[in-house]
């Protein structure tokens, strides 16, 4: 059962590599009901790597990703999507 008091999305200490290089280091973010967040940055800033880390599509070296109060480390992508998290790539 989801925790109604928890943020909808919470990242803590997320670090990840992309192509052998450190792309994310110690990322923290909370998103609550009614809020919106935009990830902005130049090419190579880590936006895609962060999205991949949210859905376990790439290697996450450290940190916690919680969706509706549930830690999703190791979950398959389709199970995370069932919690309501979605990724819409540019141009779609």
From TrEMBL:
Keywords: Amino-acid transport, Transport. One of its GO terms (biological process) is L-amino acid transport. InterPro entries: ABC_transporter-like_ATP-bd, BCAA_Transport_ATP-bd_LivF, P-loop_NTPase. Pfam families: ABC_tran. SUPFAM superfamilies: P-loop containing nucleoside triphosphate hydrolases. GO terms for molecular function: ATP binding; ATP hydrolysis activity; branched-chain amino acid transmembrane transporter activity. It comes from the Bacteria. Residues 24-90 form the ABC transporter domain. Belongs to the ABC transporter superfamily. This is ABC transporter domain-containing protein. It comes from Pseudoroseomonas cervicalis ATCC 49957.
